[in-house]
Amino acid sequence: MNLNMKNKESSKSTVSYVENVQVLESKHSSPNISMQDSALDGNRMKAISISDHETPQALEEQSKPDLLWSRIRHTMREPFSEFFGMFIVILFGDGVVAQVVLSSGEKGSYQSINWGWGIGVMLGVYASGVSGAHLNPAVTFTNCVYRKFPWRKFPTYMLAQILGALCASLVVYANYKSAIDIFEGGSDIRTVGLNTSTAGIFCTYPAPFMTKTGQFFSEFIASTILMFCIYSLGDAKHGAGNLVQLGLFFVIFGIGACFGWETGYAINLARDFGPRLASYFLGYGQEVWSAGNYYFWVPMVSPFFGCLFGAWLYDVFIFTGESPINTPWMGLKLLIPGGGKSKKEESPV
């Protein structure tokens, strides 16, 4: 009798415990997820509906509405990134030159110019991280050669960089127009190569004593230093990590302080050609092309050779990662038709 009573009480307590657990589970179950059975082609399936919270994928889709501008931005955000990165570089660089020149040195010195360009490059790199912050057609070209950057992107990157530099120089001109008018001696006077000329605010001109060979070599050596340091700072294993931008500030400052006097250290087609084109349209005339014995082509061409050589030096003597230099014949075999194919690819099936 006592045993039966104990069994009944144990059974009741077990049922009570199960019921309590079910009640607790129903109280603490998530109100956002409901399970329902649905039939699909005769098969029993369980469907989960989420009422309050969406999945990360759904939220991502909602954050990208199917709008025309959203599609344009998604397609063009890398060129936009290069445009605004270069815009910032020239805004600071040409801006500091304008302040120093137009104030006749009262509001800055040559070292102020180096500071301005260094800061401009550093901030431009921060602003254009989406695209890799090339900010220089020669750097983009070199990355295509040594780092497998897609060649199809090179034209759009270069165009974006040139347009960014051109637009920024127009903003600098608009900001300093009154001072330029006074410095030049009138609103309709724009000159190149005189003591009161302001063309040098926007693009570079060589020192009068420079020969064509000297002009080319000056830009070549500065561009070589630039590219070697870019690959050194950006090395995934031994680089500067999060301090790359600060490192580039010191690189630009150092190049300007040590190698900038003779040619103005353009070291960048976009930095020089964009503002030069803008100054031509602003009334500085044909002399923007003919000055310095037609110097204009030197900063357009020399940086490509310098950057290629700087990257070659780094990859030959330091870099051990993926590079044409670290292939048979230091990449020269890739120039031979079929030279880049492995034996497995060349052998018949």
How would you summarize the topology of this molecule?
Elements: H1 2-28, E1 33-40, E2 43-50, H2 56-63, H3 68-102, H4 110-127, H5 137-146, H6 154-184, H7 212-234, H8 244-259, H9 269-284, H10 287-294, H11 298-317, H12 343-346
Antiparallel strand pairs: 1-2
Protein name: Aquaporin
Transmembrane segments: 83-102, 114-135, 156-176, 216-234, 246-267, 294-314
Membrane topology: Multi-pass membrane protein
Give the key terms.
mainly alpha, 349 residues, 2 strands, transmembrane, 62% helix, disordered N terminus, Glycerol uptake facilitator protein, transport, Aquaporin-like, two-stranded antiparallel ribbon
Per the CATH scheme, the topology name is Glycerol uptake facilitator protein
> Which parts are unreliable, with pLDDT below 50 for 5 consecutive residues or more?
1-11, 21-54, 342-349
Care to count the β-strands? 2
Instruction: Please write the CATH class name.
Output: Mainly Alpha
Number of discrete domains: 1
Level of helix content? 55-70%
Widest sheet: strand ordering: 1-2
Largest sheet: 2 strands, antiparallel
The helix-and-strand class reads: mainly alpha
Radius of gyration: 32 Å
Number of helices: 12
CATH architecture: Up-down Bundle
Please give the alpha-carbon distance between the first and last residues.
86 Å
Based on Cα principal axes, name the global outline: globular
- SSE topology string: HEEHHHHHHHHHHH
Name of the CATH homologous superfamily: Glycerol uptake facilitator protein
Query: Average pLDDT value?
Result: 85
Fraction of residues in β-strands: under 5%
Membrane topology: Multi-pass membrane protein
Family: Belongs to the MIP/aquaporin (TC 1.A.8) family.
Protein name: Aquaporin
InterPro entries: Aquaporin-like (IPR023271), MIP (IPR000425), MIP/Aquaporin (IPR050363), MIP_CS (IPR022357)
